[in-house]
Design a protein that fits this description.
elongated; P-loop_NTPase; Guanylate kinase
């Protein structure tokens, strides 16, 4: 949230909307096999590409170690 506020690109209403969206997404995180954390955009993007090209038959445990 600090990054978002610090950028100054969204007004308070948009900041609140994004915070509420993030809360919903975080609450649903256990519904998915893999979590991609976006600490670094290029790294997170590569993880997503890797996941998309990984065979669906790959065990979920291995997919989570990416």
């Amino acid at each position: 949230m600090r990054r978002l506020i610090g950028r100054g690109t969204e007004d308070k209403t948009e900041q609140q909307r994004r915070l509420e969206t993030a809360k919903v997404e975080l609450a649903a995180q256990d519904e998915f096999d893999v979590k991609v954390v976006n600490n670094d955009v290029s790294e997170a993007a590569q993880e997503v590409v890797d996941l998309m090209t990984m065979p669906a038959s790959q065990p979920a445990a291995r997919r989570q170690r990416l």
